[in-house]
Each structure stands twice: as structure tokens, then as C-alpha cells.
Amino acid sequence: MSLVDAAGTSTLPKLLQRNAGEDPRGPGMREKTRGVWQTYSWSAYRDNVRDFALGLAALGFGRGDKLSVVGDNRPQLYFAQLAAQVLGGVSVPVYQDSIASELVYVLNHAETSVIVAEDQEQVDKALSLKEKLPRLLWIIYDDPRGLSFYDDAILRSFENILEEGRAFAKAHPQFFDSELAKGTADDTAMIAYTSGTTGNPKGVMLSHRNMIATAESFVEVNDVRRGDNWLSYLPMAWVGDAAFTLGMALMERLVANCPENPETVQRDLRELGPDTMLAPPRIWENMLTQMQVKAGDATPLKRHVFEFFRGLAERCELKRSDGKRLSLTDRLGLAVGEVVVYGPVRDQLGLRKARWCYTGGAPLGPDTYRFFRSFGINLKQVYGATEASAMISCQSDAEANPNTVGRPIPRIEVKIDDRGEVMLKGPNVFCGYFKQDEITRETVTPDGWLKTGDAGFFDKQGHLVIIDRAKDVGKLDDGSAFAPQFIENKLKFSPFIREAVAFGDQRPFVVAMIAIDMQTVGTWAEKRGLAYTSYMDLSRKPEVAGLMGEEIAKANASLPDVQQVKRYLLLNKELDADDAEMTRTRKVRRRFVAEKYANVIDAFYGAEDQVDVTMEITFEDGRRSTLNSTIAIHDVLPAQSAHGPSQGSARGSAPRPARQAA
Fold first, then answer.
1. Which of 53, 347, 390, 405 could form a disulfide with 384 if both were Cys (CB 3.0 to 4.6 A apart)?
2. Predicted structure pTM score
3. CATH no. of 3-265
């Protein structure tokens, strides 16, 4: 029988109660504080949740009320979410880097009455919005540093709530058990707000049934073991973090480990050596960039050794993926490479002990995917959606493939409709959008099929292949298919390219806007004696334009002729979620970007060599500023001749140098 069908394990807090009863001294969660890992046993984990729940009850929090957490991954923020659920309330995690206008929208739309904030920074943000949040009653903070002189009546400390909870327990000894027992599998556990690629984020209501059923299905087809270490570093507002740190960890008794802070994640990852890991493509791309930069900075001998064994590993990985046997020479080479390159690289990344790793949230380029697999990292792809409780399909160890997202997880049905859209039905499908019934009806058919909005198909092996967002898949004007994400992932394999946005739908050829990687391009420039003062200054260097031309030409070599990038432009700022160009999960808001840079797109196809660009920049407090500049447009030369800055186009006209507008 499924855990969700048993009365004693039908909700996330009940799973915690079970773990505390069956394994009271076992590690349930860890937190790195001041350089030391602090462990909460399952019983201590439960006690914190119980006391905080009772403290909330003393404040008047009850069934149907909403509690938001904001901050980095901290045990207290997870405790607070489960405590709200004990009382029949709903947790609403929000992105800690959200600007003021985003927070106001989500907190008001969710009807949040209690905010649990990590530290002074988040408290200040919440207090600055207090007048715009009429339903907000309490702000509870975890880290008291810097808050000793704050005297706002709305403020309470986490420790103070725990103390009130313990006092409440003495006066109401049966209250906690009674409230815990009232919870059912179909109660709403959390509202996870979508990234909002096409407008304001929508509140996805996920029940305990959704989250537990998803965890059960995932565990059924993956090697998940009790006591596995899991690094909880992903944004708490992302449904992927909730699926693992709460759903999976509570069901299968994983140990969730919270890093000291975002800046120490890589160091803490190496120190912890997790058994499993999930990361979005941006993390894997950053890791690859680090390896490429380190290899480039090494001595000639070390660089040669690295490149030799990297090439060998990638050739062998391609052979394995094609079902070919490795020769004796290949196997001996891999054995030597394991000692001198592959093992040390996995150790540097903190993944020497990892039995499996997943990438999800967006497509990962096949070149990046193969790089990690060839180095002995069991990287696989998972596909999901917030509305599907984070999980739809995943790859098994024996069927890892950069071109698919594996088979549907157990107990769900997936089909492709006549328009090529992926649809699914199962216990992981959400309960609906909060206060948006009409949009819910547009997304879920009357017979329960969820429309994912993704275009895909099943291959001959029964694996699901995702092409792109259905609304983003188009055609060039000659009828050739155009899938921008596929092209962008090819471009982002370069360590010098941080983001790329491709255009081509209903156009004669493909063009791209490029955001350079400030760190790697800056290092490249410094080695060549190129002085620069800012991101804008660096991106305007003709030498950098030439470097980008070379990198794009390399990517073009692996693309069909019709999908190759013909023209490009280097943005003078990074694409930023604060400017609504990207979501908080680093997905491009294509429609917004296309509208914002409409004159740039017209210039690409209008035989222009430069374009005037006016960009609006949003600061964290909501203030806005404009940036005016003229940016050069370059033509991509063939790979064999792309050895310097573009000196002209196919039409023979030389691009004029970019100039700063007045």
C-alpha cells in the first residue's frame, strides 16, 4: 500500500512523526554554521516542528492560513513550512532574490499572514513592504544578528516562537497530536509559484498526495538509499527543492544538508560529498566552465594531459552510447585517466561519491551532458513541471541519453496530442492554480489531462523527447524547423558565453544575442593585456567580438546548415531576472525579450551593422534607470576563417565601431 493511503503517513508532517518514532537518533537534517556541520536528529527535527507549530497556534495561525519563507536554505525555514502544514496551513516559499514588486505580488496573491525570514536583509525587505501587505500579521526571523534594536511590533524571533510553543503545549498537551491527525493526503501542502515566463507567476497548489506519490514513484526507479546525503542548496521556492528536501527526504529518510551560504556551496559540496545530486543546467554549465578555465590556466604539460584524456573519455562515451564495445586500448586509457584526470576532477567537483546526478528545470546541451558522463559522473536527465509536482519522467542508469528525458515515472500516463504537446495524468498532477479557476480549466482537461505546454514525442525505445516549449517552436521562412533552445545550448557549451537568445521564426536565417561570461572573458582579456572597466566596456572590445565569433563558428560546425547562426550581437549587460528578461530559475522570457529588443531583431535582418539600444534596468528596491548605447552587429565567419574580429559581412561592408550614445 502506498504511504499516502495510510492514515499515519498521509502527510509530510506525519512522515516526519514516523521517522522520529522509528529512528529518533538518526540524522534528519544538517546545517553548516561558522564552518561546523550541526546535526538535527529526526527527533530534534520533529521537536522543532512541533514547538514552532504550537507557537504559531498561539499567534492565531490556523487552517487555511498561509506562511511564506524567504531566505537561503536553512533548517528553520523547512521547520516553519512543516509546522504550518501541521496546523492545516499552507507553505508559500518565495525567491530570496526577488525584487520588491515581485514579492508584493506573490505575498498578496497568496494571502500570506506570516513571513519567516532568514536574516536582517530579508526582514528589511519585508518591513519595507509592510504597508502594501494588508494581510501580513507577523514577520518571524531566524538569524538575530543586526536586529537587536528593531522594535516593530510585527517582529518576532524564531526562538521566541519556539518558547511560546512550549508554553502552549503545557496548557494544551493534546493539541499537537490532534492537529496532526486532522491532516489528510488531499490537503494543500504548499503553493509553489511558477517562474512566470509569460506573465505574472501562477500559484500552483500541491497536495500532500501529490508530493508523496511523486517521491514514491521516483524512488521506485532510482537507487535511493536510507541515510543518503543530499545537499539542499537549490532555491526553496523552486519545486525541485521541495520535492527532494521535503518529499523525498521525509519519505525515504535522506539527510538534507544546508550549506553555510550560497558563496560556499562548491566548498561545502566537496566537503560533504553527497550521494545524490540535482542541479539545473546553469550549475552544470558553470562547473564545466570552471574545469575549462582551470585547464586553460594549467601548465602546457598538464593542459595537454587533460585534453588528451578528455578526448579519449568523450570518444569512449560516444561508443558506449552507440552500443559499441570499447577496445582494450580504450579500457587501459580510461584506467590511467581515472587516476590522473577523471577521479581528481570528480573530487574537485565534490561528486566522487555520487551514485547518480540529475539535471532538470531546462534542457542541458548534449556536449555538456557527455562531458560529465565521460568523466565518470552518472549524470542523467529528469523532466518535470511545477504543476506535476516536479516530476514527469527520468532516465535509468542504463538508458542515459542526452537527446531524451527518459521514461515516464511509474503510475502516471503521458501522451502526445495531435499538436505535438506533451500531456499527462496521474497522482502528481496539481490541485489547480490558486484563485485562478479559469486558467486551471485551460491547463487541465475535464478528464484530468495536464497540458504541459512542451512540444515532444516518444522515440522508438519509448523514451520521451522534449523539443522545446510548444509556443517557442517555429519554422524558418523556408519551412525548416526552428527550436531556439537547441541552438542556444550549443552556444552555451562555450565557457565564454553565459546566455544566448536565438531568433529565426518566420525569418530567413538564425541570429543570436549573446551575453558574455564576465569572469572567463575577463580572464581571457587580462592574459592578452586588454584593459577594461566594466561589463559594458569588455563586451564592446573588437577582440571580444572576434572571440565570440570563433565560439559561435565552433557551435555552428555541429549544427545543420539551416540552423547555423549567421549574425550576432554582444549585449552590454547580462540578462537579468530583475529586469524581467529571465525567470528566477534562469529561463529566458522569450516574448518579453523579443518585444524589448524588437529594434535589435529588425536590425539583424535589415542589413544593419549597428543598432541603438535603450535598456531599462531595475534595482532591487524597485528603482529604475535607463542605459542608452549603440551596439555593433557582427556576421559569423566560417570556422576555418574565424580567427579574429569580424571585419565585414557577406555583403562586403565593414561594420562601424560601436559608440556610446549621449
1. 390
2. 0.84
3. 3.40.50.12780
